[in-house]
Structure formats: structure tokens, C-alpha cells
Amino acid sequence: MIPNHVAIIMDGNGRWAENRGRPRIFGHIHGSARVRPIVRECGKLGVKYLTLYAFSAENWGRPSDEIQTLMRLLCKYLAREEKTLMKENVRLNSIGDIEKLPSVAKKLLQEVILKTSHNTGLCLTFALSYGSQQEILRAVKKIAQDIKEGKTTSENINVNNFKNYLYTLDMPDPDLIIRTSGEMRLSNFLLWQAAYSEIFVTSKNWPEFSIADLHLAFEDYSKRQRRFGLLESSVQ
User: Fold this and answer.
1) Is residue 205 classed as helix, strand or coil in its secondary structure?
2) In 3-state terms, what secondary structure has residue 85?
3) Main-chain phi, psi angles of 106, to 5 degrees
């Protein structure tokens, strides 16, 4: 059973490098190399949406040289993979406050998103400068503004249409969230959207996460009974 939407918290780059006596940047470089095979395999298996937690809102507090490396790696990925995304019919998307990205990275990201916008295969979303608490607060402010301007009323706001104010309004909620590095937390990632997501945690750090590990996560997911708060007998 292949999940429709897979989201991955790509954690452990720095830890992987430090365990080898290397600087954290070394881990980020190796971690970026894992994106292509995982994206390609998800597309082959029939996953429709893949969301990668690439850079959190809190990551801006890291050392400047580490941030610069991560932004360079993003630019290199976009420049290198544009043709591959087109060839493999992958549509690129992003969520988060991309206005905070360096101008070169933001421009390149927007260009690749536009160029791949008509592709009909896997939707690959990078969560960049993203924080779920910030996303929810942004949504609440937009709702308050719409109420103030008479575009809606508080009585009209419910769980279903609240989603229209989120970054992910055009995406289904994740069926499966994979977290590498063994940490048992969501780290401010898709908190609203993950209400009924299945979660798979592996002790492997992201630079060592393999296609075999992806298959293992999918096999584990296939054994889950998703009840969405209902009794098992009520789930079709």
C-alpha cells in the first residue's frame, strides 16, 4: 500500500558528520545527495506528493556559515535537477516564508516552480523557512483580516475551510511522515496537517537513509489500520 502523500523530516546531517569527525557542513553535502534517489523512487512507486522539510524557520538561528552552505546547496540542487524534474514529470512546489531566502535562491526556486508547473507527475514540495506554528498564526491573521473586511464571518470558519488559509491548501494532508535520526518529535512540521498522519521513525540519519529504508517505511505503513478517530468497523 503506497501512501498518497509522504512527508520527510530529513534530520541528522550534522550528527552523521560529527560521528565521523567531520564538520556539520560535510553532513549537509552528503544529505543533499540523498534527495534525488528518494524523489525518483517515490515517483516510481506511485507517490503523488512528497514534502521534504529542508529548512525550518528556526534554522535561521544557526551559524551563518552553515546557513550559507544550506542556501548554496539549495541553489545547486535547483540548477542541477531542473532538467531531471522536467524529464521525470515532477512538479516543484514550496511552502514557508520564502521571502526570507537570499534573493538568488528565491529567484531560482520561483523559476523552477514556474517551469515545472505544468508537469503532472509527483508533486515535490520543499518546506523552506517553514514553521507550522508560524503557518497557523499566519492563517489566523488572514482570517481576522477577512472577517474585518467582511469577506467571511467567524461562524463560517471550520476545520475544512481553515485549510484554505494554510500554505498547503492545494495539497492533501500527509498519510505518512518519516523522521530520520531517531528523534521522537515533529519539530514544528505540519502540525495541523499531521492530525491523523501515520509516523515512522528510523534511527538512521538522513545521509544514510536508503531506498531500502524507504521501502521499509512503506511496508510498515501498509500494516497500519487508519481509523481517523473512528472505530475500526466504521472505516471503509
Assistant:
1) coil
2) helix
3) -65, -45
pLDDT, tens digit, for every residue of 129-173? 999 999 999 999 999 999 999 999 999 999 999 999 999 999 999
Side-chain-side CA neighbours of 174 within 13 Å: the count stands at 27
Tell me the whole-structure pTM to 2 decimals.
Answer: 0.94
Say what the pLDDT of residue 235 is: 54
Helix axes of 64-87 and 103-115: crossing angle, nearest 10 degrees: 20
Q: Flag whether pLDDT at 229 surpasses 80.
A: no
| Residues β-bridged to residue 7 | 51, 177
The residue behind cell 549537509 is: 28
For 62-90, the pLDDT digits (tens) are 999 999 999 999 999 999 999 999 999 99
Are the C-beta atoms of residues 93 and 112 closer than 8 Å to each other? no
E-only strand ranges, the chain: 5-9, 49-56, 91-95, 123-130, 176-179, 198-201
Other beta carbons less than 10 A from residue 157's beta carbon: 16
The two beta strands, 176-179 and 49-56, are unpaired
Distance separating alpha carbons of residues 10 and 39, to the nearest angstrom: 13
Q: Which residues are catalytic?
A: 11, 59
